[in-house]
Amino acid sequence: MKNRILIGKVTKVFGIMGEIKIESYSGFYDRFETLKSIYLDNDIFTIENVKHKDKMIMLKLDRCNTRNDAQHLVGKKIYMTDADLQKLPRDEFYVRDLVGILVEDRGELIGRVKDVLTDRPQDIYVVKLEDGGEIMIPSVKAFIKEIDIENRRMKVELIEGMR
What we know:
The protein has two domains: 4-84, Elongation Factor Tu (Ef-tu), domain 3, CATH 2.40.30.60; 95-156, PRC-barrel domain (SH3 type barrels), CATH 2.30.30. The N and C termini lie far apart (42 Å). The protein has helices at residues 67-71, 95-98, and strands at residues 4-14, 19-24, 37-40, 43-53, 56-61, 77-81, 102-105, 108-117, 124-129, 134-138, 144-148, 153-156. It is mainly beta and 163 residues long. The mean pLDDT is 93.
């Protein structure tokens, strides 16, 4: 089976025709419109319809035709496969591809990306240093000089006091 990627969870039932409300973890507003099917835990479902209301997303899935059917799905995690990933513009990366890559400051290995904080105006790379400490590097051209996903390296130029 292809690698699965967590993209949300079922939060509530909507209406009486088997629709579900979901919480999306995806950064793409139209993520569910681009998918033909999803996994709910280990079961695969075909998406029949997607609705948006304010910030809520409602899905109608095959084999889910009553409120009772939908109630059995509440709490389940929603996954897609690697094959469903959208191609990103140049210089944009999925967090899962950044975590674990080596970080070099002017040729010196300083650590690995531990996490990426995406809930800010610009992303922040959390780097676990070789000496055991941690630093945070804003994702701006002043500090991030190159990201090479294929070779699993990030080249940075930090200023004094950042580490």
